Every structure is written in C-alpha cells, then in structure tokens.
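Structure first, sequence second, as always.
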C-alpha cells in the first residue's frame, strides 16, 4: 500500500474501546526502568511521553525503593526499556513488582532491543519466543485487539522494509498479537521460521501471573508504533493516563495582505482556499473547518494588478472565513508603548468595520510573537481596551524548542495558548526550494513530526502565512494530506471551534498550566530580541533571603543594607521591606512588576537583593526562583524550631490574632480537632520548623555554592562573625568590618547598626520583643514533635557538607546524652 493513499476497509467500522476524559491526572506517573542514561530508545520514549504531557520518573537502579515510596499507586504504568532488565530482577524485586501491579492494577510495557541478541529465546516463565534481526513484510494492525484506541487498524501499512526487526511468536492463549507481519528469510542468519505469522507488538493478557504486559521491539520511530505506544499507555494504566479522542485544530493564516510580489495570493489562489475549506467540511474530515485570517489592513491592494484582484476577491469571500487583528502595519508590539499600540489597533479595527469582516474580536496574534511572551504589559492592556481580547497564542512560551514543551498560561485575564508550526514559513513557498525537498515535507506529513503534532496535542493552533497559499500552495498540499492521513489511520475526531472554546478545552485539560512560570528573557536569544529595549535584566536580584519567618530575616536584611556594594528592593506600602513576589498573590503580576521593585544598579559590581521570609515554605517558590533567576544565591536562616514556633505565636498575639488571644501556646500546638483559625495558627507555628522537608526542595534547584544556611541564634549573639560568613558567600570585593558598624544595645538585648553620628539605630518595637519564657509542657511537646526533624536536619547538613548551627549541635548532644 502507498502510504500517501487511504484504502482501509476496516476504518469506518472500527470503534474505540472507552470514553475520553476531559482532564489529565497530573499526579499519575510513568515509571521507566532502564540501565543506561544514554540509551537512545529511552530518549525517544521520554520525548514521546513528554509530548502528551504525562509525568515520567526514570530510574536506573532503584526499582524497589521507588515502589515502596509510592504506596498509593502514583505509578500508573511501569516500563522496562530492555527485556534483559526485567528478566534479571531478583526474586524479591519480582515479588514486590507483582504485588504492586496487582494491588494498583498496573501493567508493564517491555521493549526488546535488537542488541539484546536473544535469537529464538524463550522467557523462563511463559512460552513467548523472540526472533531478532529479521526483515519483514505485510505489516498490519490487529483489528480485534482491545488495546487499540487512537490507532485505527487496516490491512497493511507497508509491503516490506529493509530494516531489521525483533519479532514475537507464541501459541499460548495468554498472548495476542497487536500488530502482525510476515518474517522474511533473506540471509542464513535470519531467525524466523517460514510460514509463521509473527507479532511486531505482542500483548500478554496476564493469564499466568495476573499482570498484563505489552512487548514492543525497538522500532519506536515507526509512526504506527508511536500510536500503539500511546494506546498501550492508556490501556495498561487502566485509562488513568488517557488522551481524549477529540483534536481541536485552528489554522491561522497570518500576514493577510502583507506578502510582497510575487508571493501574494491571486484570485485563483483564493478560490482554491475556499474550495479546500468546503471540501474538508463536506467530507467531514475536520468538523466545521474554517481558516482564521490575521489581517494587516495597511497593505490591502498593494502589489500588481493580479495581486490587488486577489486582495479584492479575498474580501469578497470574507464570510467564508473568520478574521482577527494582526495590527495595522504588522508592527512588533514590544517596540511600541500603550498609546501607540492602541492607535495601531484602532486603525485596523476601522478597516475591519468598513469592509464588514467577520471578526473573532476576542482573539488576536501579535506579529513576530512580540509582546506575548516575554510579556509586554502595554500590549495586553491595549488588546483589552480596543478588542476586549481574552485569547491569544504564541510559540515562545516557555521556549520555541523543543516544541513538545510549549505550554499555555493566563495573564491579566488573557488566555495564551501554545502555537505550533507546520514547517511552512514566509520563505517556504515552492516545492523545489523547500528545505530538504518535497521528500522531507512528505515525511513530516505521513507519520512524521507534523502528524505527531496533531496526535499529541489536544489543541493545535497552526501558524501559516499568506504566501504559503499562493505560489505552489504548499499549505493546501500539506493540510489535505495531513488531515486525510489522520482520518485514515486514527480514530481521532478533528474539529475547528472558536478560540474561546479552544481555551476552555485546553485549560480544563491542563489546569496546572494556568499560572505562568516566568523565565529570564536575557537567557534566551529569541526572547531578548522580542523584549522591550526599555527593560533590563540588571534590575533582577542576585541574592534572596528566603526565611523562614521569625528567624532574624529583618536583622539580616538591615545588616546587608549597610554594605555599599549591596542594594535592597524598594519598600512596599503593604509588605514593608518584603516584595513577596514568589507567592500566588503577587507572582501573577509578572516580572515587570517584580523588576519595578528594584533600583537600577549603580555599578556592575552591585548586588541587588530582597528578603521575603515566607518564601521558605512556599511549595512553588524554589522552582519559580530558579526558573527566573537560575544563578541567584539563596540564604536561609535557621534557629531552634521550638523557639521559632513560640516566637510566631507571640507575633500572632501582638498582631491581635483571635486564636492566639483566646488560646494558650500549649493549647494551640497540641490542638487536633480544632477550629480553622486555631488549626491555621498551629500550622504556622509548627510546620516551618520542619526544616529538612523544605530545604530538600531548595536543594533540588540550587547547589551548595548558591545556598547558605545562617545560624539565626548566632546572628543575634555574634552578628559580626555571621556577617563575615555571608560576605564570603557573596564573594564581595570589598568586605566591611561589621565590628565598627554594629554595637550591642543592652536595653534591646541585641546588636544594632551605628549611625554616622555614633548613635544606635535599632529595629522597631515589633522586633526582638521580650516575652515570658515558654512553659515546660510546651517545651516537652515540641522536643518530641521536632525530634525526628532535628535528626534529619543534622543528617542533611552532614551529607551536603554544611557547617552546623550551635543550637543544632547542642540539641543533638542532648539527644545522645
């Protein structure tokens, strides 16, 4: 069969086996057990699974610990990249694996690689045979297999192949082929038996041990196998890792009216555009398929006579399509301010009104992807004011490549969807000049990257250009073959819906993408090119004091500000010296908001810093900070957790917290079935002091040279020595002698900065306040509560080579006494 045609007699009668779901279970993972980091099959498998946004955990030698740590069955599927790994599990590991699979109804996906060299080898447990390094012919998919869902079976996919395959064979009723092929003997060393039909993919029903398995050979780049792998993941995970069968497709045509001669569409090109759209609808290839046209009105009727006629006929045919604003003069938004952008949009809006264009007023695309990401706030504000916009798209978030990592986000009420390319750009207009030639384009369409783009993306917004529909009409050729090929070989239902519906579908399925994850524009060449020249990454901090609260963070903030080489953020009217950007409340404001909290550094050697003591316990903060500021330094301050808990309670009392005023400290920390206000106060007292659980999150993203742990109690008693450690950590060119800048205040009971006039300038009355000692009952409770945490912290600091605070050494000695 020719791949470019569809003669599939089973297609119309084959139905998928189970319902689609509307959201993804983000907590479920695929565990891949492998023996080499550099394994090519592993890389390809991870790329495929990552393309559908399923979570992956890779392990090289820790199968048992991982299964023990995931008692709740968070692994929905277990994969072995080589049969040999599975066969050589020791008895205990196999028993634990079986127990896990049976308890949580998890199947196994096992790959057999040609280099494993197991000619006609039999599994020790079951009668399954393998034949390696074989030529094949007449490959076809088994229509009766319950595994198939996305994959639509047919008579055969190809007649023969020159590559060598590993094949499976068994007469045991537990085994059922998913795809079959003939094995051809071409050389004496071939291992197949004449006359037998072999399986290229084999299902083990689990009749012998209760565990369903699917065996694949290593032809993971074969497009049918990619489809079957996705089906196998859904089937073996009992649908917990399941993609819907619907695919929402929007084809944007940017640069309407814009292309230069001779690339603009002529009248006949527009006719073909309409005919193509009508044909796709009539044949129900893509339900309600409609091209979405992005126009720049300034360029209307510019060109030769035939091109102007094409522009006029396009407007005459306008009601066949939907239209969106692409700015009047195709300007790059990041180069304009708010008022200039409003003028651009208003002129284009007037053009649309004059010519009665059927607009998607809630959708727009910025030329060159400028201003969408990295965010240019003026663009978002102009969009909302002029168009009432609530949906846009870009290929730049978080990065252009790899395309599988593109995501969506919502910013200032505007939903930003990921946008995909189809190998057609403004310069790809002729077959004979297409990079790699027509063969490369065909390979992408018929089972290659473009085909897999639709397979792996629930919502696909394709970016194309006006010029792709003139000349050789590469876009029409591409989409004709792509859509028909998908209809022929898959059970996917393709449809076009309006952008607001696309956004609803996307964020319902991927709700974890709603909040953006800000990256540093200066770390990406493309992003830097489409970022406003009025902005600079120099206003981002080099140091962050992350807390936890009530450990002396304000004192450290004050001491750092004494150094002329160090500059802090501007004070806030609401949060005072703290920015608190990396919290859900402020993170959504974007990096422009964050940078505006910092001064322009007076010199290259200036270190900008901020301290927000609530970062320490914020679950997302370590990742968010590292993503935006991968090279920044982090300071944590630790005091005895019992004292920190008591200090927080006293802080709550001083701020008239009702729970703290009504209940004693002991009642709060020992509360179980309590009211929400007492429960919240208890958590704020106790949970930050579980230091190691939080430090592990910071260590995931920051190495030893980036993370300093300050002894908070020594910072009070001997700040001069502690600030010496801080200066060494920051590698300051000119160190300060803090013994001349800090003096002990007997009345306050702590060190205070010395002013130029020689007077002491201590922190306000809210800092270092005096209160009665903790009662013995509370001390005993906290000693027991934090015992394991103290030991964990001691081990953590030892294992990572950190010096230990004096209070921790004392606690450990007391335990061992």
């Amino acid at each position: 069969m020719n791949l470019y045609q569809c003669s599939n007699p089973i297609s119309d009668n084959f139905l998928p086996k189970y319902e689609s779901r509307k959201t993804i279970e983000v907590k479920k993972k695929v565990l891949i057990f492998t023996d080499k980091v550099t394994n090519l099959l592993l890389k390809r498998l991870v790329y495929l699974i990552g393309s559908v946004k399923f979570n992956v955990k890779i392990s090289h030698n820790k199968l048992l610990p991982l299964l023990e740590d995931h008692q709740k069955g968070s692994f929905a599927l277990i994969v072995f990249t080589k049969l040999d790994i599975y066969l050589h599990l020791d008895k205990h590991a196999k028993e634990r694996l079986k127990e896990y699979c049976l308890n949580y109804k998890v199947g196994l996906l096992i790959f057999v690689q040609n280099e494993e060299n197991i000619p006609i080898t039999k599994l020790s447990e079951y009668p399954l045979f393998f034949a390696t390094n074989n030529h094949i012919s007449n490959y076809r998919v088994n229509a009766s297999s319950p595994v198939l869902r996305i994959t639509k079976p047919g008579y055969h996919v190809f007649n023969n192949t020159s590559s060598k395959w590993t094949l499976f064979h068994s007469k045991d009723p537990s085994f059922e082929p998913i795809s079959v092929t003939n094995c051809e003997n071409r050389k004496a060393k071939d291992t197949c038996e004449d006359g037998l039909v072999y399986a290229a993919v084999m299902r083990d029903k689990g009749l012998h041990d209760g565990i369903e398995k699917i065996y694949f050979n290593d032809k993971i780049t074969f497009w049918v196998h990619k489809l079957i792998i996705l089906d196998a993941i859904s089937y073996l995970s009992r649908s917990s890792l399941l993609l819907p069968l619907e695919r929402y497709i929007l084809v944007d045509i940017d640069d309407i009216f814009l292309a230069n001669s001779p690339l603009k569409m002529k009248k006949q090109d527009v006719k073909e555009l309409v005919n193509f759209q009508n044909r796709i609808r009539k044949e129900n290839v893509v339900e309600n398929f409609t091209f979405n046209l992005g126009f720049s009105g300034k360029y209307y009727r510019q060109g030769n006579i035939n091109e102007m006629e094409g522009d006029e006929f396009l407007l005459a045919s306008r009601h066949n399509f939907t239209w969106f604003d692409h700015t009047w003069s195709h300007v790059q938004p990041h180069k304009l301010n708010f008022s200039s952008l409003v003028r651009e949009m208003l002129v284009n809006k007037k053009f649309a009104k004059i010519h009665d264009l059927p607009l998607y007023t809630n959708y727009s695309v910025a030329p060159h992807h400028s201003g969408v990401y990295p965010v240019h706030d003026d663009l978002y504000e102009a969009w909302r004011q002029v168009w009432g916009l609530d949906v846009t798209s870009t290929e730049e978030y978080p990065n252009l490549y790899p395309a599988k990592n593109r995501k969506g986000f919502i910013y200032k009420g505007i939903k930003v969807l990921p946008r995909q390319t189809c190998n057609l750009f403004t310069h790809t207009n002729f077959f004979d000049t297409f990079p790699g030639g027509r063969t490369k384009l065909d390979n992408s369409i018929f089972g290659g990257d473009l085909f897999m783009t639709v397979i792996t993306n629930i919502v696909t917004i394709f970016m194309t250009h006006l010029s792709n529909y003139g000349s050789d009409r590469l876009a029409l050729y591409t989409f004709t073959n792509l859509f028909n090929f998908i209809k022929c070989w898959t059970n996917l239902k393709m449809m076009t819906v309006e952008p607001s519906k696309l956004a609803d579908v996307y964020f319902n399925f991927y709700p974890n993408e709603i909040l953006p994850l800000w990256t540093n524009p200066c770390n990406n060449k493309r992003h830097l090119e489409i970022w406003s020249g009025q902005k600079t990454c120099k206003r981002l901090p080099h140091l962050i004091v992350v807390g936890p609260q009530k450990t002396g963070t304000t004192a450290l903030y004050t001491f750092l500000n004494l150094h002329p080489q160090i500059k802090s953020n501007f004070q806030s009217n609401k949060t005072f010296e703290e920015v608190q950007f990396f919290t859900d409340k402020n993170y959504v404001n974007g990096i422009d908001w964050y940078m505006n909290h910092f001064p322009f550094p007076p010199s290259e050697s200036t270190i900008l810093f901020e301290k927000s003591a609530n970062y320490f316990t914020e679950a997302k903060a370590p990742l968010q900070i590292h993503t935006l500021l991968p090279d920044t330094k982090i300071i944590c301050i630790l005091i005895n957790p019992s004292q920190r808990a008591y200090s927080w309670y006293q802080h709550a009392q001083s701020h008239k917290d009702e729970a703290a005023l009504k209940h004693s400290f002991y009642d709060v920390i020992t509360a179980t079935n309590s009211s929400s206000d007492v429960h919240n106060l208890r958590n704020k007292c106790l949970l930050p002091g579980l230091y190691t659980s939080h430090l592990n999150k910071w260590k995931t993203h920051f190495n030893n040279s980036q993370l300093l742990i300050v002894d908070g109690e020594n910072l009070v008693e001997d700040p001069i020595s502690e600030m010496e450690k801080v200066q060494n950590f920051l590698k300051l060119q000119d160190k300060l002698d803090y013994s001349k800048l800090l003096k002990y205040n007997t009345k306050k009971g702590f060190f205070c900065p010395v002013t130029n006039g020689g007077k002491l300038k201590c922190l306000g009355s809210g800092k270092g306040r005096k209160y009665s000692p903790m009662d013995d009952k509370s001390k005993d409770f906290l000693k027991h509560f934090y015992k394991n945490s103290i030991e964990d912290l001691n081990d953590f600091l030892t294992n990572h080579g950190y010096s230990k605070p004096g209070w921790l050494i004392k606690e450990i000695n007391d335990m061992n006494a």
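Margin note: The two ends are 81 Å apart (CA to CA).
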